[in-house]
C-alpha cells in the first residue's frame, strides 16, 4: 500500500505571552501574561487505497494552560486554557480521480472542538463539524481548473467572540 503515517508529540513553554483581552467597556487591549504551556499530539495518515482513490485524515489534541499569569484587573489566569484553541480537531478527506476524464472530486469533513472566547474561560463555543467538497479539471497540460466549497451544508456557527459574535457561513469559490 502506498501510504504515509506521521505523529508528533510536543511540550512547549513560553514566557511573557501577549494576549488580547476584552475590557468591560468593550475595547480590546493587549496584556502580557507570565508563562504558558502547550502539550499536544498530532496524527496524520495519507493512503492511496486504489490508483484512483485516496484518503487523508488527521487528528490534533492540544492541552493549553496558563502556568503563571494575572490580568491588569487582578484576575488570575493560572490553570486557564488559551482562547480560541480547541482541545480536539480532526479532518478526513477522500479524493477520487477519473483518469479518462482528466478530473477529480473530493469530499471532506472537519471537526473543531469547543474552545473559550475569553481569557477567564467563562464563555465557550460549541463544537462543530463542517463538510467540504472539491472539484478539479485538467484543462490542458499543467493547467487545472479547481473549485472548492467550504461548509457544504451551509452550517452556521459562532467562530469568535470579543466585543461581538461573528459567524461562519459557507464560502464558495
UniProtKB/TrEMBL annotation:
Membrane topology: Multi-pass membrane protein
Keyword flag Ion transport: yes
Species this protein is from: Salinisphaera shabanensis E1L3A
One Gene Ontology MF term: siderophore uptake transmembrane transporter activity
Domain TonB-dependent receptor-like beta-barrel: 5-152
Record protein name field: TonB dependent outer membrane ferrichrome-iron receptor protein
Chief localization: membrane
Superkingdom classification of source: Bacteria
Protein location: Cell outer membrane
Entry keyword set: Cell outer membrane, Ion transport, Iron, Iron transport, Membrane, Receptor, Signal, TonB box, Transmembrane, Transmembrane beta strand, Transport
Organism classification: Bacteria, Pseudomonadati, Pseudomonadota, Gammaproteobacteria, Salinisphaerales
GO cellular component, as recorded: cell outer membrane
Amino acid at each position: 500500500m502506498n501510504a504515509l503515517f506521521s505523529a508528533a508529540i510536543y511540550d512547549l513553554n513560553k514566557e511573557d505571552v501577549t494576549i488580547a483581552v476584552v475590557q468591560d467597556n468593550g475595547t480590546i487591549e493587549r496584556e502580557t501574561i507570565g508563562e504558558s504551556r502547550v502539550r499536544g499530539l498530532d496524527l496524520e495518515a495519507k493512503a492511496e487505497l486504489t490508483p484512483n482513490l485516496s484518503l487523508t485524515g488527521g487528528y490534533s489534541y492540544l492541552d493549553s494552560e496558563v502556568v503563571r499569569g494575572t490580568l491588569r484587573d487582578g484576575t488570575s489566569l493560572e490553570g486557564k486554557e488559551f482562547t480560541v484553541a480547541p482541545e480536539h480537531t480532526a479532518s478526513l478527506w477522500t479524493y477520487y480521480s477519473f483518469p479518462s476524464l482528466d478530473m477529480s472530486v473530493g469530499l471532506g469533513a472537519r471537526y473543531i472542538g469547543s474552545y473559550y472566547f475569553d481569557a477567564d474561560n467563562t464563555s465557550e463555543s460549541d463544537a462543530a463539524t463542517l463538510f467540504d467538497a472539491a472539484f478539479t479539471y485538467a484543462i490542458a497540460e499543467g493547467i487545472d481548473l479547481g473549485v472548492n466549497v467550504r461548509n457544504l451544508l451551509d452550517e452556521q456557527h459562532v467562530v469568535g467572540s470579543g466585543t461581538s459574535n461573528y459567524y461562519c457561513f459557507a464560502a464558495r469559490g
